[in-house]
Specification:
Length: 505
Protein backbone atom coordinates (compact mmCIF):
# COMPACT_ATOMS: atom_id res chain seq x y z
CA UNK A 1 0.00 0.00 0.00
CA UNK A 2 2.98 2.31 0.43
CA UNK A 3 4.22 1.97 -3.12
CA UNK A 4 4.33 5.68 -3.92
CA UNK A 5 3.31 5.51 -7.55
CA UNK A 6 0.55 3.02 -7.35
CA UNK A 7 -1.69 4.61 -4.78
CA UNK A 8 -5.21 5.05 -6.03
CA UNK A 9 -5.82 8.52 -4.60
CA UNK A 10 -9.30 8.84 -6.05
CA UNK A 11 -10.27 5.43 -4.73
CA UNK A 12 -9.10 6.45 -1.26
CA UNK A 13 -11.11 9.64 -1.49
CA UNK A 14 -14.15 7.66 -2.63
CA UNK A 15 -13.86 5.53 0.53
CA UNK A 16 -13.92 8.60 2.75
CA UNK A 17 -16.96 9.91 0.90
CA UNK A 18 -18.91 6.71 1.32
CA UNK A 19 -18.08 6.77 5.02
CA UNK A 20 -19.42 10.33 5.16
CA UNK A 21 -22.62 9.38 3.36
CA UNK A 22 -23.34 7.00 6.22
CA UNK A 23 -22.76 9.65 8.89
CA UNK A 24 -24.40 12.52 6.98
CA UNK A 25 -26.97 11.04 4.58
CA UNK A 26 -28.27 14.50 3.62
CA UNK A 27 -24.90 16.27 3.74
CA UNK A 28 -23.74 18.39 0.83
CA UNK A 29 -20.35 17.02 -0.17
CA UNK A 30 -19.67 19.47 -3.01
CA UNK A 31 -17.50 21.69 -0.84
CA UNK A 32 -15.53 18.62 0.25
CA UNK A 33 -14.95 17.70 -3.40
CA UNK A 34 -13.57 21.18 -4.01
CA UNK A 35 -11.35 20.92 -0.93
CA UNK A 36 -9.98 17.62 -2.24
CA UNK A 37 -9.11 19.19 -5.61
CA UNK A 38 -7.63 22.18 -3.79
CA UNK A 39 -5.40 20.16 -1.49
CA UNK A 40 -4.08 17.95 -4.29
CA UNK A 41 -3.14 21.07 -6.21
CA UNK A 42 -1.56 22.72 -3.15
CA UNK A 43 0.63 19.67 -2.55
CA UNK A 44 1.50 18.96 -6.18
CA UNK A 45 4.70 16.91 -6.35
CA UNK A 46 5.09 16.77 -2.55
CA UNK A 47 5.79 13.45 -0.92
CA UNK A 48 5.87 12.38 2.71
CA UNK A 49 8.89 10.45 4.00
CA UNK A 50 6.78 7.32 3.62
CA UNK A 51 6.95 7.91 -0.10
CA UNK A 52 3.24 8.58 -0.27
CA UNK A 53 1.84 11.71 -1.92
CA UNK A 54 1.30 14.46 0.66
CA UNK A 55 -2.39 14.79 -0.16
CA UNK A 56 -2.86 11.32 1.27
CA UNK A 57 -1.93 12.63 4.72
CA UNK A 58 -4.55 15.39 4.43
CA UNK A 59 -7.06 12.75 3.37
CA UNK A 60 -6.11 10.39 6.22
CA UNK A 61 -6.69 13.24 8.69
CA UNK A 62 -10.12 13.91 7.19
CA UNK A 63 -10.92 10.19 7.30
CA UNK A 64 -10.11 9.99 11.01
CA UNK A 65 -12.33 13.02 11.69
CA UNK A 66 -15.15 11.41 9.74
CA UNK A 67 -14.73 8.29 11.88
CA UNK A 68 -15.13 10.49 14.97
CA UNK A 69 -18.38 11.82 13.48
CA UNK A 70 -17.14 15.39 13.35
CA UNK A 71 -19.10 18.00 11.41
CA UNK A 72 -18.44 18.57 7.70
CA UNK A 73 -16.69 21.90 8.32
CA UNK A 74 -14.09 20.15 10.48
CA UNK A 75 -13.65 17.36 7.95
CA UNK A 76 -13.21 19.88 5.14
CA UNK A 77 -10.68 21.78 7.27
CA UNK A 78 -8.89 18.50 8.05
CA UNK A 79 -8.51 17.96 4.32
CA UNK A 80 -6.82 21.37 4.08
CA UNK A 81 -4.95 21.48 7.38
CA UNK A 82 -1.44 21.56 5.87
CA UNK A 83 -2.35 23.32 2.64
CA UNK A 84 -0.91 26.66 3.82
CA UNK A 85 1.92 25.53 6.10
CA UNK A 86 3.35 22.77 3.92
CA UNK A 87 1.55 23.26 0.63
CA UNK A 88 1.53 26.18 -1.76
CA UNK A 89 -1.84 27.63 -0.75
CA UNK A 90 -2.55 31.10 0.58
CA UNK A 91 -4.95 31.97 3.36
CA UNK A 92 -6.90 34.34 1.06
CA UNK A 93 -7.56 31.48 -1.34
CA UNK A 94 -8.96 29.33 1.44
CA UNK A 95 -11.20 32.16 2.61
CA UNK A 96 -12.41 32.79 -0.96
CA UNK A 97 -12.99 29.12 -1.74
CA UNK A 98 -14.25 27.76 1.56
CA UNK A 99 -15.16 30.70 3.76
CA UNK A 100 -13.84 32.26 6.95
CA UNK A 101 -14.88 29.40 9.26
CA UNK A 102 -12.74 26.83 7.44
CA UNK A 103 -9.87 29.33 7.22
CA UNK A 104 -10.04 29.94 10.97
CA UNK A 105 -9.84 26.22 11.73
CA UNK A 106 -6.91 25.73 9.34
CA UNK A 107 -5.19 28.78 10.90
CA UNK A 108 -5.78 27.42 14.37
CA UNK A 109 -4.17 24.09 13.51
CA UNK A 110 -1.16 25.87 12.01
CA UNK A 111 -0.80 28.05 15.09
CA UNK A 112 -0.80 25.23 17.60
CA UNK A 113 1.42 23.12 15.35
CA UNK A 114 4.04 25.83 15.54
CA UNK A 115 4.05 25.78 19.33
CA UNK A 116 7.31 24.43 20.57
CA UNK A 117 6.25 21.78 23.05
CA UNK A 118 9.51 21.39 24.86
CA UNK A 119 10.09 18.61 27.28
CA UNK A 120 8.97 19.57 30.71
CA UNK A 121 10.03 18.14 33.99
CA UNK A 122 6.93 17.86 36.05
CA UNK A 123 3.25 17.13 35.82
CA UNK A 124 2.30 20.68 36.81
CA UNK A 125 3.98 22.19 33.78
CA UNK A 126 2.77 19.47 31.46
CA UNK A 127 -0.81 20.13 32.58
CA UNK A 128 -0.33 23.84 31.90
CA UNK A 129 1.02 22.97 28.50
CA UNK A 130 -2.17 21.05 27.73
CA UNK A 131 -4.29 23.95 28.94
CA UNK A 132 -2.30 26.38 26.86
CA UNK A 133 -2.93 24.19 23.89
CA UNK A 134 -6.67 24.38 24.44
CA UNK A 135 -6.60 28.11 25.10
CA UNK A 136 -4.68 28.84 21.92
CA UNK A 137 -6.86 26.58 19.85
CA UNK A 138 -9.82 28.87 20.65
CA UNK A 139 -12.22 26.50 18.89
CA UNK A 140 -12.41 22.95 20.20
CA UNK A 141 -12.60 21.60 16.66
CA UNK A 142 -9.03 22.78 16.07
CA UNK A 143 -7.91 20.38 18.81
CA UNK A 144 -9.77 17.48 17.21
CA UNK A 145 -8.17 18.22 13.84
CA UNK A 146 -4.76 18.39 15.50
CA UNK A 147 -5.39 15.08 17.28
CA UNK A 148 -6.41 13.42 14.01
CA UNK A 149 -3.30 14.84 12.34
CA UNK A 150 -1.12 13.52 15.19
CA UNK A 151 -2.75 10.10 15.08
CA UNK A 152 -1.89 9.71 11.42
CA UNK A 153 1.62 11.05 11.97
CA UNK A 154 2.08 8.40 14.65
CA UNK A 155 0.84 5.71 12.27
CA UNK A 156 3.53 6.74 9.78
CA UNK A 157 6.28 7.51 12.31
CA UNK A 158 8.40 4.58 11.14
CA UNK A 159 9.50 6.61 8.13
CA UNK A 160 11.14 9.37 10.19
CA UNK A 161 14.73 9.60 11.42
CA UNK A 162 15.24 8.14 14.89
CA UNK A 163 15.78 11.41 16.76
CA UNK A 164 12.53 12.79 15.44
CA UNK A 165 10.69 9.56 16.18
CA UNK A 166 11.66 9.79 19.81
CA UNK A 167 10.72 13.46 20.19
CA UNK A 168 7.35 13.05 18.49
CA UNK A 169 6.53 9.86 20.37
CA UNK A 170 7.34 11.51 23.72
CA UNK A 171 5.27 14.55 22.88
CA UNK A 172 2.40 12.25 21.96
CA UNK A 173 2.64 10.33 25.22
CA UNK A 174 2.99 13.44 27.40
CA UNK A 175 0.73 15.95 25.72
CA UNK A 176 -1.57 14.58 23.04
CA UNK A 177 -2.70 11.27 24.54
CA UNK A 178 -3.59 12.86 27.91
CA UNK A 179 -5.35 15.65 26.04
CA UNK A 180 -7.43 13.08 24.15
CA UNK A 181 -8.16 11.45 27.49
CA UNK A 182 -9.28 14.77 28.97
CA UNK A 183 -11.64 15.16 26.05
CA UNK A 184 -13.09 11.75 26.87
CA UNK A 185 -11.59 10.04 23.80
CA UNK A 186 -10.18 7.05 25.63
CA UNK A 187 -9.90 4.87 22.55
CA UNK A 188 -7.89 7.52 20.71
CA UNK A 189 -5.73 8.12 23.77
CA UNK A 190 -5.05 4.38 24.09
CA UNK A 191 -4.16 4.08 20.41
CA UNK A 192 -1.77 7.03 20.66
CA UNK A 193 0.01 5.57 23.67
CA UNK A 194 0.32 2.19 21.98
CA UNK A 195 1.80 3.82 18.89
CA UNK A 196 4.33 5.75 20.99
CA UNK A 197 5.20 2.79 23.25
CA UNK A 198 7.73 0.91 21.02
CA UNK A 199 9.65 4.10 20.19
CA UNK A 200 10.12 5.21 23.79
CA UNK A 201 10.45 1.88 25.62
CA UNK A 202 11.44 -0.63 22.91
CA UNK A 203 12.65 -3.40 25.26
CA UNK A 204 9.65 -3.15 27.57
CA UNK A 205 7.31 -3.09 24.60
CA UNK A 206 8.75 -6.35 23.28
CA UNK A 207 8.56 -7.98 26.67
CA UNK A 208 4.91 -7.07 27.31
CA UNK A 209 4.00 -8.14 23.80
CA UNK A 210 5.67 -11.49 24.24
CA UNK A 211 4.45 -12.21 27.78
CA UNK A 212 0.85 -11.20 27.17
CA UNK A 213 0.20 -12.99 23.90
CA UNK A 214 -1.14 -16.22 25.39
CA UNK A 215 -3.25 -14.42 27.96
CA UNK A 216 -4.97 -12.32 25.31
CA UNK A 217 -5.67 -15.46 23.32
CA UNK A 218 -6.98 -17.46 26.24
CA UNK A 219 -9.49 -14.86 27.44
CA UNK A 220 -10.67 -14.06 23.91
CA UNK A 221 -11.54 -17.73 23.46
CA UNK A 222 -13.40 -17.75 26.76
CA UNK A 223 -15.43 -14.69 25.86
CA UNK A 224 -16.38 -16.23 22.53
CA UNK A 225 -17.83 -19.18 24.42
CA UNK A 226 -19.75 -16.97 26.85
CA UNK A 227 -20.98 -14.78 24.02
CA UNK A 228 -22.99 -17.49 22.28
CA UNK A 229 -24.99 -18.50 25.32
CA UNK A 230 -25.45 -14.94 26.60
CA UNK A 231 -26.78 -13.66 23.27
CA UNK A 232 -29.49 -16.31 23.35
CA UNK A 233 -30.40 -15.44 26.94
CA UNK A 234 -30.55 -11.72 26.23
CA UNK A 235 -32.76 -12.42 23.22
CA UNK A 236 -35.11 -14.34 25.53
CA UNK A 237 -35.50 -11.06 27.44
CA UNK A 238 -36.42 -9.37 24.18
CA UNK A 239 -33.09 -7.56 23.81
CA UNK A 240 -31.10 -7.04 20.67
CA UNK A 241 -27.63 -6.87 22.15
CA UNK A 242 -24.23 -6.72 20.53
CA UNK A 243 -21.35 -8.46 22.29
CA UNK A 244 -17.72 -7.64 21.61
CA UNK A 245 -14.37 -8.62 23.06
CA UNK A 246 -12.40 -5.50 24.04
CA UNK A 247 -8.63 -6.00 24.23
CA UNK A 248 -6.79 -3.87 26.75
CA UNK A 249 -4.31 -1.47 25.17
CA UNK A 250 -0.76 -2.76 25.46
CA UNK A 251 0.69 0.38 27.05
CA UNK A 252 -1.98 0.51 29.73
CA UNK A 253 -1.48 -3.23 30.37
CA UNK A 254 2.22 -2.53 30.89
CA UNK A 255 1.51 0.29 33.35
CA UNK A 256 -0.77 -2.06 35.27
CA UNK A 257 1.74 -4.93 35.28
CA UNK A 258 4.34 -2.60 36.73
CA UNK A 259 2.18 -1.70 39.75
CA UNK A 260 3.64 -2.92 43.05
CA UNK A 261 0.50 -4.89 43.93
CA UNK A 262 0.52 -6.69 40.56
CA UNK A 263 4.22 -7.31 39.93
CA UNK A 264 3.64 -8.90 36.55
CA UNK A 265 1.17 -11.47 37.90
CA UNK A 266 -1.28 -11.91 35.02
CA UNK A 267 -3.71 -13.73 37.33
CA UNK A 268 -4.31 -10.39 39.04
CA UNK A 269 -5.36 -8.71 35.81
CA UNK A 270 -8.98 -9.44 34.99
CA UNK A 271 -9.56 -7.09 32.09
CA UNK A 272 -6.79 -8.02 29.65
CA UNK A 273 -9.75 -8.81 27.40
CA UNK A 274 -13.16 -7.67 28.63
CA UNK A 275 -16.58 -8.65 27.37
CA UNK A 276 -18.51 -5.63 26.21
CA UNK A 277 -22.29 -5.78 25.93
CA UNK A 278 -23.93 -3.01 23.91
CA UNK A 279 -27.65 -2.37 24.21
CA UNK A 280 -30.08 0.37 23.19
CA UNK A 281 -31.32 1.90 26.42
CA UNK A 282 -30.21 2.58 29.98
CA UNK A 283 -32.85 0.28 31.46
CA UNK A 284 -31.65 -2.53 29.19
CA UNK A 285 -28.18 -2.12 30.74
CA UNK A 286 -29.58 -3.13 34.12
CA UNK A 287 -31.63 -5.97 32.67
CA UNK A 288 -28.50 -7.24 30.92
CA UNK A 289 -26.59 -7.06 34.21
CA UNK A 290 -29.26 -9.26 35.80
CA UNK A 291 -28.98 -11.78 32.99
CA UNK A 292 -25.18 -11.91 33.25
CA UNK A 293 -25.28 -12.47 37.01
CA UNK A 294 -27.92 -15.16 36.73
CA UNK A 295 -25.54 -17.28 34.65
CA UNK A 296 -22.12 -16.12 35.78
CA UNK A 297 -21.76 -15.39 39.49
CA UNK A 298 -20.17 -12.07 40.40
CA UNK A 299 -16.80 -12.32 42.14
CA UNK A 300 -17.16 -11.34 45.82
CA UNK A 301 -15.22 -8.19 46.83
CA UNK A 302 -14.31 -7.32 43.24
CA UNK A 303 -17.96 -7.02 42.29
CA UNK A 304 -19.80 -4.31 40.41
CA UNK A 305 -18.92 -0.71 39.56
CA UNK A 306 -21.92 1.27 38.36
CA UNK A 307 -20.44 4.15 36.37
CA UNK A 308 -23.89 4.88 34.95
CA UNK A 309 -25.21 5.95 38.33
CA UNK A 310 -21.83 7.49 39.18
CA UNK A 311 -19.87 8.50 36.08
CA UNK A 312 -16.06 8.85 36.21
CA UNK A 313 -14.70 12.41 36.31
CA UNK A 314 -14.07 12.42 32.56
CA UNK A 315 -17.71 11.49 31.98
CA UNK A 316 -17.16 7.77 31.36
CA UNK A 317 -20.32 5.70 31.84
CA UNK A 318 -20.78 1.89 31.82
CA UNK A 319 -21.51 -0.88 34.29
CA UNK A 320 -18.49 -3.05 35.05
CA UNK A 321 -18.79 -6.39 36.76
CA UNK A 322 -16.30 -9.17 37.36
CA UNK A 323 -17.77 -12.65 37.08
CA UNK A 324 -16.61 -16.25 37.25
CA UNK A 325 -16.55 -17.36 33.63
CA UNK A 326 -16.30 -20.95 32.38
CA UNK A 327 -13.70 -22.92 34.31
CA UNK A 328 -13.74 -20.40 37.16
CA UNK A 329 -11.64 -17.87 35.26
CA UNK A 330 -12.50 -14.27 36.24
CA UNK A 331 -13.81 -12.20 33.34
CA UNK A 332 -14.72 -8.51 33.31
CA UNK A 333 -18.04 -7.65 31.68
CA UNK A 334 -18.78 -4.06 30.63
CA UNK A 335 -22.34 -3.05 29.84
CA UNK A 336 -23.32 0.23 28.15
CA UNK A 337 -25.66 1.77 25.59
CA UNK A 338 -24.50 2.62 22.08
CA UNK A 339 -24.65 6.31 22.92
CA UNK A 340 -22.37 5.79 25.94
CA UNK A 341 -20.12 3.70 23.75
CA UNK A 342 -19.74 6.46 21.16
CA UNK A 343 -18.89 8.90 23.91
CA UNK A 344 -16.36 6.60 25.52
CA UNK A 345 -14.68 6.00 22.17
CA UNK A 346 -14.88 9.44 20.60
CA UNK A 347 -15.45 11.66 23.62
CA UNK A 348 -16.60 15.19 23.00
CA UNK A 349 -16.38 14.72 19.26
CA UNK A 350 -19.32 12.31 19.41
CA UNK A 351 -21.45 15.17 20.62
CA UNK A 352 -21.39 16.76 17.22
CA UNK A 353 -23.27 13.76 15.87
CA UNK A 354 -25.73 13.85 18.78
CA UNK A 355 -26.14 17.56 18.25
CA UNK A 356 -27.21 16.76 14.70
CA UNK A 357 -29.71 14.25 16.07
CA UNK A 358 -31.15 16.90 18.35
CA UNK A 359 -31.62 19.28 15.44
CA UNK A 360 -33.81 16.60 13.95
CA UNK A 361 -36.06 17.10 16.95
CA UNK A 362 -35.27 13.97 18.84
CA UNK A 363 -36.85 14.42 22.26
CA UNK A 364 -34.85 14.99 25.44
CA UNK A 365 -36.63 11.99 26.88
CA UNK A 366 -35.26 9.83 24.11
CA UNK A 367 -31.73 11.20 24.55
CA UNK A 368 -31.84 10.30 28.22
CA UNK A 369 -33.26 6.87 27.60
CA UNK A 370 -30.43 5.90 25.28
CA UNK A 371 -27.84 7.42 27.60
CA UNK A 372 -26.76 10.20 25.26
CA UNK A 373 -27.04 12.70 28.08
CA UNK A 374 -24.77 12.60 31.11
CA UNK A 375 -25.78 13.81 34.57
CA UNK A 376 -24.74 17.38 35.22
CA UNK A 377 -22.80 16.98 38.41
CA UNK A 378 -19.13 16.09 38.61
CA UNK A 379 -18.19 17.63 35.32
CA UNK A 380 -14.60 18.68 34.80
CA UNK A 381 -13.91 21.97 33.07
CA UNK A 382 -13.57 20.19 29.78
CA UNK A 383 -16.83 18.36 30.25
CA UNK A 384 -18.56 21.65 30.87
CA UNK A 385 -18.15 22.33 27.20
CA UNK A 386 -20.49 19.45 26.52
CA UNK A 387 -22.93 20.87 28.95
CA UNK A 388 -22.97 24.26 27.26
CA UNK A 389 -23.53 22.50 24.00
CA UNK A 390 -26.66 20.84 25.28
CA UNK A 391 -28.15 24.12 26.38
CA UNK A 392 -27.57 25.91 23.14
CA UNK A 393 -30.18 26.02 20.45
CA UNK A 394 -28.79 27.46 17.28
CA UNK A 395 -25.39 26.67 15.92
CA UNK A 396 -24.04 30.21 15.94
CA UNK A 397 -24.58 30.51 19.64
CA UNK A 398 -23.00 27.11 19.96
CA UNK A 399 -19.89 28.13 18.09
CA UNK A 400 -19.46 31.05 20.46
CA UNK A 401 -19.66 28.75 23.46
CA UNK A 402 -17.03 26.27 22.32
CA UNK A 403 -14.52 29.08 22.08
CA UNK A 404 -13.32 28.43 25.60
CA UNK A 405 -14.73 31.21 27.68
CA UNK A 406 -13.25 29.37 30.61
CA UNK A 407 -9.75 29.94 29.33
CA UNK A 408 -10.23 33.22 27.51
CA UNK A 409 -8.91 35.26 30.38
CA UNK A 410 -5.74 33.25 30.80
CA UNK A 411 -2.47 33.25 28.92
CA UNK A 412 0.33 30.70 28.98
CA UNK A 413 3.98 31.68 28.62
CA UNK A 414 7.26 29.81 28.57
CA UNK A 415 10.34 30.34 30.68
CA UNK A 416 13.60 30.18 28.69
CA UNK A 417 13.94 26.59 29.95
CA UNK A 418 10.56 25.63 28.55
CA UNK A 419 8.47 25.59 31.71
CA UNK A 420 4.96 26.90 31.25
CA UNK A 421 3.32 29.48 33.48
CA UNK A 422 -0.37 30.33 33.53
CA UNK A 423 -1.08 34.05 33.97
CA UNK A 424 -4.11 36.31 33.66
CA UNK A 425 -4.64 38.23 30.45
CA UNK A 426 -2.59 41.50 30.22
CA UNK A 427 0.07 40.09 32.54
CA UNK A 428 3.48 41.75 32.19
CA UNK A 429 7.08 40.54 32.59
CA UNK A 430 6.93 41.80 36.21
CA UNK A 431 3.92 39.56 36.91
CA UNK A 432 5.82 36.72 35.31
CA UNK A 433 8.89 37.32 37.48
CA UNK A 434 6.88 37.20 40.70
CA UNK A 435 5.00 34.10 39.45
CA UNK A 436 8.29 32.27 38.93
CA UNK A 437 9.70 33.24 42.31
CA UNK A 438 9.33 36.20 44.69
CA UNK A 439 13.09 36.40 44.70
CA UNK A 440 13.26 36.87 40.97
CA UNK A 441 11.10 39.99 41.44
CA UNK A 442 13.96 41.55 43.37
CA UNK A 443 16.44 41.13 40.56
CA UNK A 444 14.49 42.56 37.65
CA UNK A 445 16.77 44.63 35.46
CA UNK A 446 14.95 44.33 32.17
CA UNK A 447 12.87 41.79 30.26
CA UNK A 448 13.08 39.98 26.96
CA UNK A 449 10.14 38.47 25.09
CA UNK A 450 11.01 36.01 22.34
CA UNK A 451 14.59 37.25 22.49
CA UNK A 452 13.81 40.97 22.19
CA UNK A 453 14.03 43.58 24.97
CA UNK A 454 10.56 44.92 25.88
CA UNK A 455 9.34 47.52 28.40
CA UNK A 456 8.43 46.05 31.79
CA UNK A 457 4.78 47.00 31.26
CA UNK A 458 4.61 45.02 28.00
CA UNK A 459 1.50 42.79 27.72
CA UNK A 460 2.44 39.14 27.30
CA UNK A 461 0.74 36.76 24.86
CA UNK A 462 0.23 33.00 24.96
CA UNK A 463 3.23 31.16 23.61
CA UNK A 464 5.72 33.97 24.43
CA UNK A 465 9.10 33.00 25.81
CA UNK A 466 9.79 35.39 28.68
CA UNK A 467 13.21 36.04 30.10
CA UNK A 468 14.02 38.29 33.05
CA UNK A 469 17.43 39.91 32.71
CA UNK A 470 18.74 39.91 36.25
CA UNK A 471 20.57 42.68 38.06
CA UNK A 472 23.75 41.82 39.96
CA UNK A 473 22.30 42.78 43.33
CA UNK A 474 18.74 42.67 44.66
CA UNK A 475 16.89 45.97 44.57
CA UNK A 476 13.49 47.15 45.76
CA UNK A 477 10.51 46.94 43.41
CA UNK A 478 9.45 50.21 41.87
CA UNK A 479 6.14 51.71 43.11
CA UNK A 480 5.35 52.60 39.48
CA UNK A 481 4.98 48.89 38.72
CA UNK A 482 1.68 48.98 40.59
CA UNK A 483 0.26 50.89 37.60
CA UNK A 484 0.51 47.86 35.34
CA UNK A 485 0.88 44.59 37.26
CA UNK A 486 -2.26 42.41 37.30
CA UNK A 487 -1.44 39.42 39.49
CA UNK A 488 -2.13 39.35 43.20
CA UNK A 489 1.34 37.99 43.96
CA UNK A 490 3.08 40.91 42.28
CA UNK A 491 0.78 43.50 43.89
CA UNK A 492 1.20 41.93 47.30
CA UNK A 493 4.99 41.85 47.09
CA UNK A 494 5.31 45.43 45.86
CA UNK A 495 2.86 46.72 48.46
CA UNK A 496 4.52 44.88 51.30
CA UNK A 497 7.85 46.40 50.34
CA UNK A 498 6.32 49.89 50.20
CA UNK A 499 4.80 49.38 53.66
CA UNK A 500 8.09 48.36 55.25
CA UNK A 501 9.87 51.39 53.79
CA UNK A 502 7.09 53.71 54.98
CA UNK A 503 7.40 52.26 58.45
CA UNK A 504 11.13 52.88 58.42
CA UNK A 505 10.59 56.53 57.42
MN1 LIG B 1 -0.42 17.38 9.15
Amino acid sequence: MTNGNKIDLEGEYGDVKSLLRQVYPDGDLKRLDRAWEFTKLAHTGQKRLTGEPYALHELATARILAGWKMDLVSITSGLLHDAIEDGGAKREDIVAEFGEEVALLVDGVTKISNLKLRESRNEFFVENLRKMFLAMAKDLRVVFIKLADRLHNMQTLYALPQQKQLRIAKETLEIFAPLADRLGMSEVAGDMKDLAFPYIYPAEFKEVQKESKLHYKEVTKLIKKMKRSLLAKLADEGMRANIQAREKHLYSLWRKLERPEIKWDFEKIHDIVAMRILVDTVSECYTALGVVHRFYKPVPHLGISDFIAQPKPNGYRSIHTKVFGPGGKIVEVQIRTWAMHDQAEYGLSAHWAYDEAKKKKVSDEFMEKVGAVAPKDKLSWVRQLVDWQKEIKDSEEYMEAVKFDALNNRIFVFSPKGDVYELPKSATPVDYAFAVHTDLGKYIKSAKVNGKIVPLKHNLNSGDIVEIVKSKNPHPPSPSWLDFVVTLEAKKEINSYLRTTEEKV
